[in-house]
Amino acid sequence: MEVLALKKQIQTEKTNWLALTQELGKNFEKRAAHYDQTGAFVVENYEQLKAHRFFSAMIPEELGGGGISHAEMCDIIRTIAHYCSSTALAFSMHQHLVAATVWKYKKKGEGAALLKRVAEEQLVLISTGARDWLESNGEMEKVEGGYLFSGKKYFASQSAKGDIAITSAPWLNDNNEWQVLHFGVSMKAEGVHVLDDWDVLGMRATGSQGIQFDRVFISDTAISLARPRGEYHPVWDVVITVAMPLIMSAYVGTAEKAVDIAMSIGKQYHRNESHITYIAGKLHNSLLSAQTQWKAMHARANNIDFMPDENITVDMLSLKTNVSEAAKHTVSEAMEAIGGQSFYRKNVLERLFRDVQAAGFHPLPKWDQYAFTGERLLARY
């Protein structure tokens, strides 16, 4: 059935987003190997997602969005990963910025203008959060009416096709105190350049090029937050809580797809005849660990109905590490189920193995997470 025909069929009172995702996914799957081989961004997949208004699916209906829940979006991203894990991961980066803004809208009455623009124009939001932790990087020069921003931001997923970069930079204020200023930048602004530097092991089609900012004007009114540099700020209790379940959805879906392949091929693999039952049982345990802890993540987000709480953040980062490790372990064990044939690039498992390795590099990498969590746990005793 054609995608447009399906859309007309299922758009009665509300879109059946998951059914539409599965239908679009068939096209994503056909292109996945090509995008992986070339390292090109998944432009066609994004065009289809835009055409069906997926970029505003989680925005409240009164602002022009689809009004679906955070948990539903997690499930959509997980499902996309069954067809193209790069598309799922890139898409999750936009959605976690939307989710944080929806939280601000619901809890503080802020952010409506941005959400309306995203819904009306199907804008793609780019996160530079991987380089914007406590210290941030870059330079801000004060000028009349604002600042001139310079710096490089790496791992900026979707930068190849995005519209607005949500970023930050350090600033030494008039009181000689270091702050980090947060703001959005149009990718069409003078001085913004997307670098050609995304040549990596896995998740090759996410368009995660670096962005070079050369004296880009940032108006005073564009500054959404000023926080002390190098110190933990409650804003992370919002960002981490909404972001990590969405991002890890891509890796849970990748692990599930790996298990599907392993089970269907493994049961026919003659060298495993004597122990395939053990392999299958062990594989299920690994996948279940990833799935249940992922569900615990978006349960803590409570469909964006929570108050910022460092205790939730501590749990969320621990769960992120556990899901990451479990997803990687699951894909590795899936390869064991079908043996050496998983080593060939023609087998989808080879790509999934490379893609899932990226799970551990999202903030916080596990050793940083252990230290962050341990410090806060020890302070309680």
Description:
The protein folds into 3 domains: 14-124, Orthogonal Bundle (Butyryl-Coa Dehydrogenase, subunit A, domain 1), CATH 1.10.540.10; 129-228, Beta Barrel (Butyryl-CoA Dehydrogenase, subunit A, domain 2), CATH 2.40.110.10; 235-379, Up-down Bundle (Butyryl-CoA Dehydrogenase, subunit A, domain 3), CATH 1.20.140.10. It is built from 11 helices and 8 strands. The chain has helices at residues 3-10, 17-38, 43-51, 70-83, 85-108, 112-121, 235-266, 276-301, 310-338, 348-356, 366-379; strands at 125-127, 139-143, 146-153, 164-172, 178-186, 192-194, 211-219, 223-228. Strands 1-4-5-8 form a 4-stranded mixed sheet. Strands 2-3-7-6 form a 4-stranded antiparallel sheet, with no helix packed on it. Helix 1 (3-10) packs antiparallel against helix 2 (17-38), helix 4 packs parallel to helix 7 and helix 9 packs antiparallel against helix 11 (366-379). The termini are far apart.
